[in-house]
Amino acid sequence: MHKYLNAKEYDILCTILHSNEPLNVSQIIAFHPDMTANIVQPSIRKLIKLKLIEIADISLEGNVFSRRFKPTSDALDIIQKMFIDDYLHFSRLVSGHTLINAMMKADNDPDKAMQDIDELERLLTEYKGKRNNKKD
């Protein structure tokens, strides 16, 4: 199975994706005190190589220049493709029911779980509607 990102790379990507402004390495480390520049820098290079993030600009902090990073315009599409690839691998090992059950168990927030269920129901209804229209 192809593993795109490790846990720290996911954490860094999530931080950049959910930030309201581009972040530099120091800012990322501030969000993740357990990480060092030696962990963040290679992760940033990998995320750039995968076209998930890009250099937004170069800022001046004191007398030091630093690159700030933001998600690429294609980041969400690439993440979706990564998820689909992983899903295809897992779906050969376990049933769809088991995968959805695991997704529900992974969420400790009941309100979020209900939102996810509502979204799944909407997507399933939409899919069934498209499929029924093709049969007609």
Please characterize this protein's 3D structure.
This protein is an alpha+beta fold. It folds into 2 domains: 65 residues, Arc Repressor Mutant, subunit A, CATH 1.10.10.10; 61 residues, no CATH class. Helix content is 62%, strand content 12%. The chain is built from 6 helices and 2 strands. It has a two-stranded antiparallel ribbon. Helix 1 packs across helix 3. The protein is elongated. It starts with 6 loop residues before the first helix and ends with a helix. The mean pLDDT is 90.
Overall strand count: 2
Largest β-sheet summary = 2 strands, antiparallel
What is the CATH domain class of the largest domain? Answer: Mainly Alpha
Structural class: alpha+beta
Gyration radius, rounded: 19 Å
- Rounded average pLDDT: 90
Just name the CATH architecture of the largest domain: Orthogonal Bundle
Any low-confidence stretches, pLDDT <50, length ≥5? none
**Helix-strand string:** HHHEEHHH
Specify the CATH homologous superfamily of the largest domain. Answer: Winged helix-like DNA-binding domain superfamily/Winged helix DNA-binding domain
